[in-house]
Design brief:
Elements (H helix, E strand, L loop, with lengths): L4 H4 L4 H4 L20 H66 L5 H7 L3 H72 L3 H24 L12 H12 L17 H11 L8 H7 L1 E3 L9 E4 L5 E7 L2 E4 L8 E4 L5 E6 L3
Antiparallel strand pairs: 1-6, 2-3, 2-6, 3-4, 4-5
Helix pairs in contact: 3-5, 3-6, 4-5, 7-8
Length: 344
């Protein structure tokens, strides 16, 4: 569905002049709306593309909040353990002091003079002093550790608050985009059946032209490598998801967004990859497009806002957009940014 407006310029003149009189099927709109099928398609394309970017941005922000929350919980747990040890040791030190007091509380030098066995008294005094010094050392170290952990916890909590603020902002952006998606769906629903079929035909034609252009570039001419065992497992998983609906932020098992599908496919293959298409592009190993092999991930658009699983023969499995299902499509039907290889 998604292609840059640059692609529209390459269409034939006949395609560009297909007209859609929206006012023929609905009351005049309050604001200007697309008047041709090509314009309708471009508007829908832009809205869905913006929505996918906003959703991935939210998912990335949510992932950071989850990670930081884990750090804060771990620090709090360490503080609790340190506090418990500190309390216990303080209690033991106090008990030892009270026992010494009940035993006379005399200085070691006087105990030495009065003892029947001065050598034993000296040994006892030395052991007591060393025990007190060791206990005080541990108490000091634990107190320092507790204070350090408390400082780190305050810093981590402050960072978590900032990340949550960012997530709320990204969520607001996403909701705004979703409202515009609703407008796009209403726009699409106003098309008569014949007009909707024409719009779908435009989609197919644009995808076919893009695929033909990609193939003509010679990218598939060199012998393709076979998928490894993990790649085959990822493809098998994705294949079983064909026909399931696209849902924003979904990771299965009943619905997926684009990166949710690739995440689960490779997780099924035993490889953990980042959640969003941007992070998959940023953190996974990049390979030249001509070296593409089944199981690789194809990243689309300049913002790395869409991702698909390559299955060979110039085809991909992907979750396209809301209103569509997980499907097989030509790999070159959208603007390719690059290719990454999980598990490499």
């Amino acid at each position: 569905m998604r292609r840059t407006l640059r692609a529209h310029g390459r269409r034939t003149a006949a395609t560009l002049t297909v007209a859609l009189a929206l006012t023929a099927t609905a009351a005049p709109p309050a604001r200007a709306e697309p008047a041709t099928l090509t314009e309708v398609r471009a508007e829908l394309e832009r809205l869905y593309h913006d929505a996918e970017i906003a959703t991935d941005n939210y998912n990335a922000a949510d992932e950071k909040v989850t990670e930081q929350s884990g750090k804060v919980r771990a620090l709090k747990a360490r503080i609790a353990v340190t506090e418990s040890r500190l309390d216990r040791l303080t209690e033991l030190a106090g008990a030892a002091a009270r026992a010494q007091y009940r035993g006379g509380g005399l200085p070691a030098e006087i105990q030495f003079v009065l003892a029947d066995d001065p050598e034993r008294a000296l040994d006892n005094a030395s052991l007591t002093r060393r025990s007190q010094q060791a206990t005080q050392g541990v108490l000091t170290a634990l107190s320092a550790t507790r204070d350090d952990l408390a400082t780190r916890n305050e810093e981590a909590a402050a960072e978590l608050r900032k990340l949550r603020t960012t997530r709320r902002a990204k969520d607001a952006e996403r909701r705004t985009i979703e409202k515009r998606i609703g407008e796009a769906k209403r726009l699409e629903s106003r098309l008569a059946r014949e007009q909707a079929e024409q719009l779908a035909a435009l989609d197919r034609r644009a995808a076919a032209e893009a695929q033909a252009e990609w193939v003509e570039s010679g990218v598939l001419d060199r012998p393709g490598a076979e998928a490894d065992a993990a790649g085959r497992k990822a493809i098998a998983y994705a294949t079983r998801q064909l026909g399931k609906p696209y849902v924003w932020g979904a990771e299965g098992p009943d619905s997926f967004d684009c990166s949710g599908l690739t995440l689960r496919a490779w997780e099924h293959a035993g490889v953990i990859i980042p959640r969003t298409s941007q992070e998959q592009w940023r953190r996974l190993k990049r390979v030249p497009v001509p070296d593409l092999r089944p199981g690789d991930l194809v990243i689309y658009f300049a913002e790395a806002s869409h991702v698909a699983l390559y299955i060979g023969d110039g085809k991909i499995i992907h979750a396209p957009r809301p209103g569509r299902d997980v499907t097989v499509a030509p790999a070159g039907s959208m603007e390719i940014l690059g290719v990454v290889r999980p598990g490499a």
